[in-house]
Write a structure and sequence with these properties.
Layout (H helix, E strand, L loop, with lengths): L5 H18 L9 E8 L4 E8 L5 H17 L1
Antiparallel strand pairs: 1-2
Length: 75
């Protein structure tokens, strides 16, 4: 079965809509991190895969993940 790309597309579209509503034209996307949990091996394994904007430093990526972690734990 092929990977369902609409899941990533739907989440990205929702985020872009939220950004447009919140910031309008007064903003520019600086950095993107994309995380997905992939179920494979007949449903017996999950693996986290990720991609980031070109040039993202380790410190910036880790900092973004820490903000997300804090938000998930406290929000």
């Amino acid at each position: 079965m092929p990977v369902d790309q609409s899941k990533v597309g739907n989440v990205a579209a929702r985020l872009m809509g939220n950004l447009e509503n919140k910031y309008g034209d007064d903003a520019e996307i600086k950095t993107v991190l994309l995380l997905v949990a992939v179920e494979h091996s007949a449903g017996t394994q999950d693996t986290i895969e990720f991609s980031a904007s070109e040039g993202v430093s380790r410190q910036e990526g880790v900092g973004m993940l820490e903000i997300i972690k804090h938000s998930l734990l406290n929000g």
